[in-house]
Design goal:
Keywords: Cell membrane, Membrane, Plasmid, Transmembrane, Transmembrane helix
Protein name: Type IV secretion protein AvhB10
Strand order of the largest sheet: 2-4-7-9-10-14
Structural class: alpha+beta
Biased composition (Pro residues): 80-100, 108-119
Largest sheet: 6 strands, antiparallel, barrel
Distance between the termini: 120 Å
CATH class of the domain at 190-290 and 361-392: Mainly Beta
Shape: elongated
Strand content: 15-25%
Organism: Allorhizobium ampelinum (strain ATCC BAA-846 / DSM 112012 / S4) (Agrobacterium vitis (strain S4))
Subcellular location: Cell membrane
């Protein structure tokens, strides 16, 4: 049966090639021949490079190409001129550096100059001593032009006041005062001002005894408004701090009190330096007055009684012994009794004079009603805004709430 060409081609493709056993051997031989050829070529190259003349004028780093020996007719011709040696041009050396200039300066101070001799100027007296008199002469002539005062201002004749007591002296000094003037000024922030002369009512929290000086405390009992009545400046319950004196004379019934500080509940504080008064503005506080009659007169009365008894016994003894014959003994006894009586009398007088100096004691109980007479304007403007500013804030608040 005859096959088609396609089947024969497929059959040939399926047949495996028979490996050549000498292929590996032939490959090894080819490699050896290639190595031998490379060694021979390298040897020839090295031998050729040794025979070439070397140009020393050129450095080893310069690129060179292989030159061939010219033919004989060329070598036998005219000799080639030797290449010119390169001329190395060296730059001129730099000039030597200039030495630095010596800048050291020596400031030699000039020789000291002797100061010129001081000439003492005689001291000129501000007012000559001969014109300084310890006496002052005043011309009080009513008809002349020298009826002025000591300060040079022309004034009327001095007022003559009869009497030399304190009231007359006060009247004379008050009459000698000339006309005085004061410039008015506008008070600012009347809404936050407590003016001078305001009475601040209060209640005393601590008791007062005038034997020793001390401090006292009180609280306000009513609200105190500003000068224009816009707001309450001193609310009820504000604390008041003050001091009282202990110098009380005989016949005195009031104790002097000074209120120094005011402290509000919100922490605001102000100096008062004002006087304590009663509801009618009279200075001082009234209280119970202890005149201390027992301390002042008790010891002297007792000594007077003892001295009187001693005097009585002295007279009684002298009458009983008048008919006695022993005059010397009786005279000695009488002298002793008189001495004792005189001693007790002197002691009573001494004690009385000392006890009369004991001052009375004024006691003011706790809870007493007091008043403070303000002696200066109390300014609280730093605690409150200006009324115009407050009105603007109120308007803005109303507009924002709409």
């Amino acid at each position: 049966m005859k096959r088609s060409p396609e089947l024969e081609a497929m059959a040939q493709a399926d047949e495996t090639d028979v490996s050549n056993k000498n292929a590996k051997r032939n490959q090894t031989a080819g490699m050896a021949a290639l190595v031998i050829f490379g060694v021979i070529a390298a040897y020839m190259v090295l031998a050729t490079s040794k025979d070439e003349p070397r140009d020393n004028s050129q450095s080893d780093e310069e690129f060179r190409t292989t030159t061939f020996r010219p033919p004989g007719f060329v070598r036998d011709g005219e000799p080639q001129p030797a290449p010119e040696q390169p001329v190395v041009v060296l730059p001129p050396p730099p000039p030597p550096p200039e030495p630095p200039a010596d800048t050291t300066t020596f400031n030699v101070p000039p020789p000291p100059v002797a100061p010129p001799p001081t000439v003492e100027v005689p001291k000129v007296e501000e007012f000559p001593e001969r014109f300084r008199s310890k006496l002052i002469t005043m011309d009080q002539n009513l008809g002349g032009n020298g009826n002025g005062s000591l300060d040079g201002s022309a004034s009327g004749p001095p007022l003559t006041v009869a009497g030399e007591d304190k009231n007359s002296q006060y009247l004379s000094s008050a009459s000698a005062i000339g006309d005085r003037s004061a410039k008015a000024r506008q008070l600012k922030r009347l809404d936050a001002l407590v003016p001078e002369g305001t009475l601040i009512p209060g209640i005393l929290e601590t008791a007062i005894v005038s034997d020793l000086p001390g401090q006292i405390r009180a609280i306000t009992s009513q609200d105190v408004y500003s000068f224009d009545g816009r707001r309450v400046i001193i609310p009820t319950g504000t604390r008041l701090i003050g001091e009282y004196q202990s110098e009380v004379t005989r016949g005195q019934k009031r104790i002097f009190v000074v209120w120094t500080r005011l402290i509000r509940d919100d922490g605001a504080s102000v100096r008062l330096n004002s006087i304590g008064a009663d509801s009618l503005g009279r200075s001082g506080l009234t209280g119970h007055v202890d005149n201390k009659f027992r301390e002042r007169f008790g010891a002297s009365i007792l000594l007077s009684i003892v001295g009187g008894g001693a005097s009585y016994l002295t007279g009684y003894g002298s009458e009983q012994s008048s008919g006695s014959n022993n005059d010397d003994a009786q005279r000695g006894a009488d002298l002793a009794r008189e001495t004792i009586a005189q001693t007790f009398s002197d002691m009573a007088n001494t004690v009385l004079s000392e006890n009369l100096r004991i001052p009375p004691t004024i006691s003011v109980p706790q809870g007493e009603r007091i008043f403070i007479f303000v002696r200066q304007d109390l300014d609280f403007s730093d605690m409150y805004d200006d009324p115009v500013t407050e009105a603007m804030k109120e308007i803005k608040r109303e507009r924002s709430s709409r």
